[in-house]
Specification:
Layout (H helix, E strand, L loop, with lengths): L3 H25 L7 H8 L7 H36 L11 H19 L9 H28 L3 H24 L3 H11 L8 H17 L4 H7 L3 H6 L4 H23 L5 H13 L4 H23 L10 H24 L1
Helix pairs in contact: 1-3, 1-13, 2-3, 3-8, 3-11, 3-12, 3-13, 4-5, 4-6, 4-7, 4-11, 5-6, 5-11, 8-11, 12-13, 12-14, 13-14
Length: 346
């Protein structure tokens, strides 16, 4: 039997190897398959004699791969933080209503603009994209600020969870009213945004997105000690010297920021943040959040890359909505968790 510390030292390199393979497949495979040798030459700046391959790789696949990498990492970490904070295996990044707040912000831009000003932001090109991203971030951070205020004033973890869920329901109800009174084109654009996508950014914007998702995801490692204590329960953690309110605020701020950024740039991506923490726990076989966060980063990125690859399988001329694919992968994981919990109770 492999000792636990040796097992961890082997698993992280294996996970990184899997991640590198998925990155290579994302760059090489699609409606047009590109040889790996050509991919390496193009990515390293040597160029290719086939201009079409070079354009496909640099303008489409490379940005998609970078965005999927950053989004998966951010959602995996955010989901792990929420599940530990609320001690709920079915909690996800959107449990506090931050994604719903982001959707509400986008709803005001896409749905209200057509009614009030008679034009669609989706027709304004980069300025329309900027308006959507700004509105999404505004809605998400408004909800996040409200949740942080409630967390500071009320204090109870369960109360924060319930209020977050209620905020999500309120946001969704407002969006429903806006949809009812909006023009068909605006509703269509809003639905397309809500399906999620990793292909909305150029290479430069993709690098920026990666920086503002990957760096905070890694900074979550500094919360590992607080998470280890909070997993034992608030009272026990408090007796061990942890300042519960401060730790809760930092965890919510970190998870909320990651969720807000991903939703703003990619749309509300479902299931990755709920399923990846369970995969990380299954692989790590430990409750130490230092290892869990590392594996959530790697497996979250790998899961998002796998979903992105399946969304544009070879031979397909168009891409599937990313949320359709994440549901196929994430739902079985969540069902297996419920089934396992049920078996343990009997």
């Amino acid at each position: 039997m492999i000792p636990i510390f040796q097992r961890k030292s082997v698993l992280i390199p294996l996970s990184l190897g899997l991640l590198l393979i998925l990155i290579a497949l994302n760059l090489a495979m699609g409606s047009v398959n590109i040889p790996i040798a050509e991919v390496v030459d193009i990515v390293t700046g040597k160029g290719s004699s086939n201009v079409i391959w070079e354009n496909i790789l640099l303008r489409t696949r490379l940005p998609q791969t970078i965005v999927a990498l950053g989004a998966g990492m951010a959602l995996g970490v955010a989901g792990l933080l929420m599940q530990t904070l609320f001690r709920n295996p079915l909690a996800g990044p959107s449990v506090l209503g931050i994604s719903s707040g982001s959707s509400l912000g986008v709803g005001f831009v896409l749905l209200v603009a057509g009614q009030v000003w008679g034009f669609s932001f989706s027709r304004l090109g980069i300025w329309g994209d900027l308006a959507i991203i700004t509105a999404s971030l505004g809605g998400a951070f408004a909800v996040l600020a409200l949740i942080l205020f409630i967390s500071h004033k009320i204090g109870g973890t369960l109360s924060v969870l319930i209020i977050g869920v209620m905020i999500g329901y309120l946001s969704n109800s407002v969006v429903g009213v806006l949809k009812f009174y909006s023009m068909e084109e605006d509703v269509h654009n809003y639905v397309i945004w809500g399906l999620g996508s990793f292909s909305r950014m150029s290479v430069d914007r993709a690098y920026l997105f990666a920086m503002i998702t990957i760096v905070p995801s890694l900074l979550a490692l500094f919360l590992s000690k607080s998470l280890n204590l909070m997993a034992l329960g608030d009272r026990y953690a408090s007796n061990l010297g942890l300042k519960i309110k401060r730790a809760r605020l930092l965890i919510i701020l970190c998870a909320g920021t990651l969720t807000a950024v991903v939703t703003a740039f990619c749309g509300p991506i479902i299931f990755i943040g709920m399923a990846v923490p369970h995969l990380a726990k299954l692989v790590s076989r430990t409750s130490n959040h230092l290892y869990l966060i590392c594996n959530a980063c790697i497996l979250g990125a790998a899961t998002a890359l796998l979903c992105n690859l399946l969304a544009r399988l070879p031979g397909m001329e168009s891409e599937l909505p990313i949320n359709s694919v994440t549901a196929f992968i994430g739902a079985p994981v969540v069902i297996s968790v419920i089934w396992k919990k049920r078996k343990e109770n009997f």
